[in-house]
Amino acid sequence: MACKIGIPRGLWFYDYYPLWKTFYEELGAEVILSNPTNKKTLDAGVKNTVDEACLPVKIFHGHVLDLKDKVDFIFLPKLMSAYEKEYICPKFCGLPEMVTHSIKDLPPIIDTEINFNHSRRNLMKTVYSFGNYVTQNPIAIKRAYSKALDAYHDYKEKIKGGSYPINGEFNDHDLNREKASITIAVMGHSYNIYDQYGSMSLIDKLHEHRIKVITPEMMDYRRVNEYAESLEKKMFWSYGRKLLGTAMYFADAKNIDGIVYLSSFGCGIDSIIEELVERKTRKEGKMPFLLVTVDEHTGEAGVNTRLEAFIDMIEWRKKNETNLSTHG
Ligand code: SF4
């Protein structure tokens, strides 16, 4: 019988899951994803995580609990660095330890370290180590990894083409790009903006107003990088670097009417980045900017009211003239 590998639908899931799902399926494993985030996931996560953790980490714990009794292994790599000379948030680095200390009686964890600051040879060693949970055949692992990379690139291209991986699934029925007269960039970590429950359906809400939505993952990575390179000081947090580069790109772009930054309460990186993004876009780029910070207590009604006021202001500004307050 095929071994069952559970992938929690949180954090790096939104950036990498097609890669690991394809990899393990090619090796003959059955991959089981946790259910999309819902109230039960959130409540279970909040109950089993330290209070100081940010909302996405709490949600992640809820996803692990959802998989706990359904699988033989839980995929929970120790993601240190995804780009050379850069680091992911410290909470990612300590995630396997945090989860195993908070949740008892888990199945074995696939907690191999991913660190792009090590050599390329080491990267292949890492891939073999992931594959060895299913097979000892290096040729099969290499072949599966190559197919997985193809799936990963297809996924990235699809997002760049304007699709949204809401809960990790593409659903294009609600695109009204031809009819949209307003374009809003939704900024934030991928696991915040594409998690339907955690984001309070932000993208759908904007679509209901016939607004075209663009996200950081749709931007040309090379251009974003060029902007990020021009920062006075190198930003070594990968997510921060991507968001700042994107904000500078948007500040120069003439086709964006406003920015909504979706942030998590308790996120150390966001507390710096959102301020810098606001400076680059609202203050320097004269672009309307709305910051929405969420935690497990945030009421959806309050977010709706602020969002609607922001949209009204952009519509008014577009209809009347361009030299108005950018405070949102
Ligand atoms: S970057 Fe922020 S939101 Fe993401 S895991 Fe780290 S602290 Fe949490």
From TrEMBL:
Organism lineage string: Bacteria, Bacillati, Bacillota, Clostridia, Eubacteriales
Identification of the protein by name: Uncharacterized protein
Naturally occurring in which organism (per UniProt): Clostridium aceticum
Source organism superkingdom: Bacteria
Pfam families, sorted: DUF2229 (PF09989), HGD-D (PF06050)
